[in-house]
Amino acid sequence: MNPDRLAMINGSRSPRKSEGRDIIAPRYNPSNRISKPSRPTPPKAAATASGSRYLTQDEQSEQFVADEDKFVLKQAKKKADIRVRENRAKPIDYLAFNLRFIDTDRDVFDDDDEDVEIDVPAPEQVLESLTADQLKELDEDIRSYHTLEANARNKEYWTSLLALCGHRRQKLKPHGPEGRALASVASDVDKILAPKTLEQLEALEKQIKAKLSSNEPIDTDYWEELLKSLLVYKAKAKLNKVCEAIKAARIGLLRPRNPEKAKALEESDGLPTTTTPNFAPGASKPVVRQAATASSSSQSSAPPPGTARFASTGNEDFSQATKALYDREVARGVGEGEEIFTSEETLPSDTKPLWADKYRPRKPRYFNRVQMGYEWNKYNQTHYDHDNPPPKVVQGYRFNIFYPDLIDKTKAPTFKMIREHGRRRGESFAPAGKEDTCLIRFIAGPPYEDIAFRIVDREWDYSAKKERGFKSSFDKGILQLHFQFKKIYYRK
C-alpha cells in the first residue's frame, strides 16, 4: 500500500522528503498549511529601483541639459575633425583634433583611418603663432569646450590651455613701468620653476600660499608674481602630461600603418613640431575665418557667413549667457535644404522705449535658418526634371532669438506681421512670377529692443510634422518660431 495512504488511515502525517525536494514546490509551514516560498526584496535594492524609475522635475531638467550639452559637444568635435581633414581648420580645431586620440567619449563611428597620418601643430605651437585678437577669439572657443566637457582628463586639458592662452595674451600687452620691473626678474623665476616637475610645483605652490597668508614681513609683490608664474608652469606641466598620453596613443595607432613615422614620433621630444599654418586674415588655407568684403587693412578676421552683424561694436547683446545659447545653436549646424537667414530690417529709432533711461537697450542675438526647396507644380513638372531642377523657392523659416536676460521673465516675447502700403492679408501687389514680402517684428520687454526680418508673405501650415512642423515657444531664454508654408495644389 502507498505509504502516504497508509499514514492517512492511521491518522499520522505523511513522511517528509527532506532530501531532493524541489525548491520551487509548495512547502509545509508549522501550521501544516501549504504556502509558496517567499523571496523578500532587499530594502536597498527596492529603494534603488524606485529611485531610478521616478525623477523629480529638477532632476529631469538637469538630465535634459546634460544630454543637450553632450550632443552640442559631440557636434563641435565632429566639425573640428572635418575642418582639419579638409585643410580649413581654425586654431581651436587643431587643439580639439589633438585631443581626439585619447578622448574616451568620442564617437568611434566618426573616426577616419587616415586621421592618425595628419600632422597638426602641438598646442603650445598653436598659441605661439596667434596675434592678440586671434588669442582673444581662441580664449572664447576654449571656454566653450571647457564649459561643455565632462570628462576629467579632457577638462584638465582645456583648463591648462585656458591658463596658457591667458598668459600668452598678457605677454603680448605693452608693459608699463611696473611690468618692465617685474619682467626684469623673469629669467630668475624661469631658472627656479623650469626644472621642477608637476609634483614639485604643487608642493611649492602650497609653500608660497602659506607664506603669503602668514604675518611675516615679506616682499608681497615678488611672491605674488612668483605664484602667478608658478601657475603657468603648472599648466604647462599638466598639458605636457596630456600630450605625452596623446603621443603614446598616436604611436600605437601608427605602428601597424607606418612604422617609420611611428619610430620618428617615438624619438621626438613631445608632439612633433610641424609647419605652423598662417592664420592671418586673407591668407591661403587654412584660415581662421572666411574672407569677407572688408578692406585689406583690416587687422581682425571676418566673421563666418550669417554672423557679420555680430562683428560690429554697437548695442548688440554679448553677454556670457547669450553667447552660450548662441554657440549651442550654432553647433547644431544647418540641416539639409537650409541656409542661414539674416535679412534683418532696420526699424525707425526715433521713439525710445519708456524703459530706456532705466536699462541699457540692446539688440538680441539670433541664429535663423530659411528652408529652401523645389516646388514641383504642373509648370515645373512640364519644363524641368530632377537632373535639371527648377529654381529653389522659400518653403519656411526657423527663427531662434535669444533673450536670456529679460527683466520680466513671466512675459514671453511676441511677434507680429507688418504689411506695408496698406496691403492686407491675402491681397497681392506683386507682379507675375514674384511673391509678396512682409516684415515679421519680434517684440520683447526690457532690456531688449525690437528686431524685424523681411520674409515671404504666404499662408503658414500650422500642422505639426516632426521637426519641420509649426512651433512657437519660449523656453530657457530662447524664442523659437518655426513654420512652413502651405503647399498649393491646383486642380482642374
From TrEMBL:
Q: Which GO terms describe its cellular component?
A: cytoplasm; spliceosomal complex
Highest taxon, organism lineage: Eukaryota
Bias regions of kind Polar residues — which residues?
A: 49-58
Annotated Splicing factor Cactin C-terminal domain ranges read 355-492
- The Splicing factor cactin central domain covers 56-242
Query: Where is the region Disordered?
Result: 1-58, 260-314
Which family does the UniProt entry place this protein in? Belongs to the CACTIN family.
Protein name per UniProt: Splicing factor Cactin
Species assigned in the record: Immersiella caudata
